[in-house]
Design a protein that fits this description.
By secondary structure, the chain is α/β, with parallel strands linked by helices. The chain has helices spanning 2-14, 17-32, 46-59, 75-88, 104-112, 138-152, 168-181, 197-210, 222-234, 250-257, 269-284, 305-308; strands at residues 35-39, 65-68, 92-95, 117-120, 132-136, 158-163, 186-192, 214-219, 242-247, 263-266, 292-295, 298-300. The protein has a 6-stranded parallel beta sheet with strand order 2-1-3-4-5-11, sandwiched between helices. Strands 7-6-8-9-10-12 form a 6-stranded mixed beta sheet, sandwiched between helices.
């Protein structure tokens, strides 16, 4: 009888409002203690802001603190800033390097400090130093652009490529493009636009002036494509030159809708962000995570742009 009474008292205590409130408070404090570092290539690109939105959509409801850095397309600066994040006491690092090989010192520092790394968007060269890689099917983004360009232009047309060869994502896009076109086009020039509108603009102008028969430009990301569109606007006598990008950001979709560029190999940055954040939480919970997580890519043209909307990312 006394034993049953003790059990009843214990159960009453466990399920009392005071006890359960204390449990929730302890859990909240534990979550508030978790800090995740967000290290994109730059914060001066809507794509990385959209990825961050996806990260926040998962981590903020979980009570996890996010610290962001802005390397401004400088890998050495990123490495230094990641060092600062480690000193501040982050639990997991989310990183998209500017230089897929040059980020190695930062990854080694994370390993030394027992901080797991989730590599998003731009795959690193040293895969053994990251727990998981969450990236779009960048090779396919180049493939879908190439196929559309081949449908739009006759064999032997002169085209140019605006590359950014320091990042593996851009390398994969270019590989998909080049493999698909084979010898179908004459690639008159490939230049490094560094994935930046300001850098690409004057280069694109030079290409258009030097190549009067230029039929198209493939830019490996949308900021570079934007520079090409601006260059074409400054030299309307060069129209029509088909401009292609990769990303699918809202500004680019508006340009496609307006007929100022042909298409973009689109991806979903918010999906990349949310999936990366989910992987980070799984790591903290000691769950097994996949090494490679692939997010699909597809082509957006004027024919289907309304389907994906003009005011946000797809």
């Amino acid at each position: 009888m006394k034993k049953s009474l003790c059990v009843m008292i214990l159960l009453a205590l466990v399920f009392s409002p005071a006890f359960t409130a204390g449990q929730k408070e302890a859990a909240a404090v534990e979550k508030d203690g978790v800090v995740i570092g967000y290290a994109p290539t730059t914060m001066n690109n809507p794509f990385w802001l959209a990825v961050l939105d996806g990260v926040k959509s998962v981590l903020e409801p979980a009570g996890v603190k996010i610290i962001t850095i802005d390397p401004q397309n400088d890998q050495s600066r990123m490495n230094d800033q990641i060092g600062d994040l480690l000193v501040s006491g982050i639990d997991v690092l989310l990183v998209a390097p500017m230089d897929s090989a040059g980020v190695k010192p930062a990854l080694e520092a994370c390993a030394k400090n027992n901080v797991p790394v989730v590599n998003f968007d731009t795959p690193v060269v040293d895969r053994d130093l990251v727990a998981s890689i969450v990236a779009s099917d960048n090779y396919n983004a180049g493939v879908v652009v190439a196929k559309d360009m081949m449908e739009m232009l006759p064999k032997g047309s002169e085209i140019a490529v605006m590359h950014s060869p320091s990042g593996q994502a851009c390398i994969d896009r270019a590989d998909g493009f080049y493999t698909t076109i084979g010898d179908y086009f004459e690639v008159v020039v490939e230049l490094d636009g560094k994935g930046d509108t300001g850098v690409t603009l004057p280069l694109a102008e030079d290409i258009m002036i030097a190549n009067p028969k230029l039929a198209a430009i493939f830019a490996v990301n949308d900021p570079s494509a934007m520079g090409c569109v601006q260059a074409l606007a400054a030299h309307p006598e060069k129209s029509p030159v088909l401009i292609y990008g990769v990303d699918g950001n809202p500004d680019i979709k508006k340009l496609i809708k307006a007929g100022k560029m042909r298409a973009t190999g689109a991806q979903s940055p918010e999906t990349i962000g949310s999936m990366s954040a989910e992987v980070a939480l799984d790591i903290l919970a000691d769950k097994t995570v996949e090494k490679d997580i692939v997010v699909p890519t597809f082509l957006i043209t004027a024919a289907n742009v309304d389907q994906y909307g003009l005011d946000g990312w797809q």
